[in-house]
# Entry
Amino acid sequence: MSAQLDLVPRYRHMTAADLDAVVAIEEGVYPHPWTRSNFSDSLAAGYQCWIVECGGEIAGYSVVMIAPEEAHLLNLSIAAPWQRRGFGREVLGFVLRLAREHGARRVLLEVRPSNEAARALYAAAGFSGIATRRDYYPAGAGREDAIVLQLELHHR
# Structure
């Protein structure tokens, strides 16, 4: 197989067997990461939990709660070695296709004001701010607000 083909993203459902690797990635990219319980609870709840593999390793993952007409992106993370290579945009595109396939009319998410890379990613995809959740996230000195973003989905 060529090196180029080996870099084609492959998606699969996250399983409990992935949790050690997922938690290691999470802890490597966030100062206040999700816990193993957050991920196992998401799996148990039946949320859409997906792994993206590239080059034989986990490049990232997403967790999406889909309800009638609405999807809530709970987590989208790219492993540090795969960042700044277009994988965030790739996984977000996958999430948006998944939401459309499940009949969602809009996607919601929260993002830290300090997470400039994520904010730029979501803005480029057409998300816009609709609210602020005060003291939503743990932070080094207390709590940090969350910006609530929304994207209206257009069905083809």
